[in-house]
Amino acid sequence: MSLYSNILAAIAAGTIAMAGPAMAAQKPTVVLVHGAFAESNSWNGVIKDLEADGYPVVGAANPLRGVASDAAYVSSILAGIKGPVVLVGHSYGGQVISGAANGHENVKALVFVSAFAPDTGESAIDLTGKFPGSTLAPTLAAPVDLPGGGHDLYIDQAKFPAQFAADVPSRTARLMAVIQRPVAEAALKEGAGEPAWKKVPSFFVYGDADKNIPPPALAWMAKRAGSKGTVVVKGASHVVMVSHPNAVAHLIEKAASTTSK
């Protein structure tokens, strides 16, 4: 039997877990869930810091198709991780982790990074409009028709740096604009299910110059969730994890410390 066949057989038998989570006996595994108009490499700086401090990390590729279906996908990743988990979500990814953590007793903390923390029935659009200040809508490009109906949304590449990543070096922001991943319009309108933040300790970090989600909305959600630690980064944009990875990683490690209590 080939090495590849042996590996497949071991996975089927449940004797091999994911490479990162296998280290979870030492420190909790950090699972990172990106949001709309971003992708997993937006966590690169955070991952560098976490791995340097000995944390196993998994970057989940968020499908961005719908709140319930995306949460189910992330939940399937969590099911393959042994040991404690700190689940982290950026922007729309906050809605996803709020649902994905349900049913997983090993999820010991949630970290919301410039992220939505919805209650049952609330959508991203509902929460964005709860307070004035978001300038996202006028920067969106023409919706892209999907084969099965509905639309995908992108931020206009020319407007992306100023809207999404104003405190990121311009070259990096332009690259982010090109490789941005679209979100289904329906996902932003979909109401959330029962939120895990009602029973799992939650932490929040965001910038006070966020143009996608108004900072007052982020502050309100953090207070409502009973945040165990809130960090507001002065001058930071919506992608605070790109521009200030150290601050984000530090809060994640603080959240991780709750797993040992």
Report what the structure shows.
This protein has 261 residues and is of the alpha/beta class. The chain has a domain at 26-132 and 190-260: 3-Layer(aba) Sandwich (Rossmann fold). It has eleven helices and nine strands. The termini are far apart.
- Average pLDDT level: 91
Instruction: Point out poorly predicted stretches.
Output: 1-25
CATH class of the domain at 26-132 and 190-260: Alpha Beta
Order of H and E elements: HEHEHEHEHEEHHEHEHEHH
Query: What share of the residues lie within helices?
Result: 25-40%
Main sheet: strand order: 2-1-3-4-8-9
Structural class computed from helices and strand pairing: alpha/beta
Counted by DSSP, the helix tally is 11
Q: Distance between the terminal alpha carbons, to the nearest Å? A: 45 Å
CATH architecture group name of the domain at 26-132 and 190-260: 3-Layer(aba) Sandwich
For the biggest sheet, the summary is: 6 strands, parallel
